[in-house]
Design goal:
Blueprint lengths: L15 H17 L9 H13 L6 H17 L2 E3 L5 E4 L4
Helix pairs in contact: 1-3, 2-3
Length: 95
């Protein structure tokens, strides 16, 4: 059996297009599974949902989450390894 090897990157090593993909994937994951929203992002996340519903613009919900939770999304993204295109590879093990 052959072993395939490939490079993985931290969030900060990605180019902007790949970072945007990682950010979007993180936000979509939160919207699909609210239990994954970090505790320190819950207030901003809830505000984004309420704003989206109030404005009757559910298609902007992800943008509102980014507006209100940018720091928490970036922290979450920095906890992962990525392929060069911004696809999630694995979690960085905490020491």
């Amino acid at each position: 059996m052959k072993t395939k090897t490939y490079e993985v990157f931290t969030f900060d090593e990605l180019d902007q297009v790949a970072k945007d993909k990682a950010i979007n994937d993180c936000i979509v994951t939160w919207m699909e599974c609210e239990q994954l929203v970090p505790e320190d992002a819950i207030d901003g996340y809830t505000k984004a949902i309420v704003t989206s519903e109030h404005m009757q613009t559910p298609w902007f919900c992800g943008s509102y989450i980014w507006d209100y939770c940018k720091e928490q999304v970036e922290v979450e993204c920095r906890r992962m390894w990525y392929c060069q295109n911004g696809e999630f590879d694995s979690w960085i093990e905490e020491e």
